Fold this sequence. Notes:
Elements: E1 3-9, H1 16-24, E2 31-37, H2 44-51, E3 59-63, H3 69-79, E4 84-87, E5 92-94, H4 99-106, H5 115-118, H6 123-128, E6 153-161, H7 169-173, E7 179-181, E8 203-205, H8 206-212, H9 223-234, E9 239-250, H10 259-275, H11 282-285, H12 287-297
Parallel strand pairs: 1-2, 1-4, 2-3, 6-9
Antiparallel strand pairs: 4-8, 5-9, 6-7, 6-8
Amino acid sequence: MRITLITACYNSAAVIGTALESVLRQTWPDVECWVIDGGSTDGTLEIIREYEPKFGGRMHWVSEPDRGMYDAINKGIRWATGEVVGILNADDVLVDDRVLERVASAFGVSTTANCANRANGDAKAQRAIEPLNPAAGHLNLGTLEPDRRPTDVVYGDIRFVADRRGVGLEELRAEPTVRYYSSRHWRPWMARFGYVPAHPSFYCRRELFEKFGGYQTDYKIAADHELLIRFLVKERVRSVCLPEVMVVMRLGGVSTRSVESTLILNRENIRACRANGIYTNRLMQLGKYVVKIPGLIFKTGY
């Protein structure tokens, strides 16, 4: 199974090297890397060119003006050749070198479901694999039968670290957790309260974009939120949650930069729900902030 990772970037010279390095080191052999640059002028392109030969033909890139991050991601999806597509932000990194191996296993490529946890030997995570709501199209990884019950989507947890620039991959991976975002407790009914699985951990079959559409480019911040609701709640695709960290994410994303960004995010989250037939309101959206509290306390997972 080929997995395509798409990275959209613009003037990301201080961070994109660690993102690309984390993809380059993956043990899964069939990885395609697409970098969609918006016309950077800060040295980003030099770093991309430096990494291109290291991938041995598995990395492709383009640098041209676009209509924002979601437009760039949609370009990558159109050009992707992998059966499965994931998004890796330029300032994020895969948590270890075997993330994509575990993703492939969850999609049914490996015959051993326990492969999803063998890289870190986390017995607690293995016990945490539990049956999700079958009516919502979710599967239990431990009982996945790839020939009869194909998985459409895989997602997991992420952890936030300090926004350190100019550091190496292993140094960034070793940074202490500032906040933990757990996707393992998510259920479809929680979408109306602003809680969805962590988008940086989201992998899905490319055919879903062809069937249900890509990212809505008229959203400024929450097109990823809308897509998750559309796929997981409205269309009820089959999904598997890996109860483990998949991505290390630097603090300082666009959705939390200012009060204005927070207001835009909440308005777009409400719009995303209503566009997909889910009732919500501003008060109900406050639920997502309640969900964040355990992640500030239990920084090794919950």
